[in-house]
Amino acid sequence: MTHSYDASENQGRGPEEPVVVRDRRRVDPQTGQVRPPGPAHAAPEPDEVPVEHAGPSLGESIVDESVTVVSDVEKELAERTADLQRLQAEYANYRKRVERDREAVVLGAKATVVNDLLPLLDDLERAEQHGDLTGAFKAVGDKLISGLQRAGLESFGAEGEPFDPSVHEAVQHNTSPDVAGPTVTVVMRRGYRFGDRVLRAALVGVTDHEPGAAPVDPSVGGELPLDGGVDEQQQ
């Protein structure tokens, strides 16, 4: 049966909307070229925006959680790096402090042993002054003194040294015009130091400059004075 068009069926209906076909393809299927942006490729209408590109709904946060996580990780990494650097610095300082303390302990132990040997060194020095330090006895004494010097022992206190109250102990005092200031002129007992530590001060006699007295001119020697003759000197 042939269906006849009945105009009465469309009565009460409005005019039909025209069908619009939009070609949104970026590449022309005929030419294969990328189409320039135009009305056909414009952004879709608000009601045609895909769900994945739609804006946040009411009450939804617009903060990107992935960015926040990365920032927290970077902050924690910086804190851990600073803690590690601080720990390394503290460990380096600890090693230096331990090494310094160990050296101080070793030096103190050596100084204690050397300090107990100072009376023996005094006996060797007196024996040498009296001419008794000879033969095998002298060889043993020289080896002992050389070993102590290599370990860090140093003697001080010699005639002609400027008087230093920090290392010299004055037990005798004289005055003379031959010196310009306090000078060690007599050594009664030699002093010793071990490294920076003074084991024993030197016992010395000190001669100070005599005020008001003119020092003897060493250039004259035993010659007669240039001014005046022998008769003037006798008068």
UniProtKB/TrEMBL annotation:
Keyword S-adenosyl-L-methionine (UniProt): no
Entry keyword annotation includes RNA-binding: no
Polar residues composition bias: residue spans: 1-11
PROSITE patterns named in the record: GRPE
Composition skew (Basic and acidic residues), residue ranges: 14-28
Region (Disordered): 1-62, 207-235
UniProt xrefs under InterPro entries: GrpE (IPR000740), GrpE_CC (IPR013805), GrpE_head (IPR009012)
CDD domains tied to this protein: GrpE (cd00446)
Record-linked NCBIfam families: PRK14164.1 (NF010761)
Known partners and oligomeric status: Homodimer.
Annotated protein name in UniProt: Protein GrpE
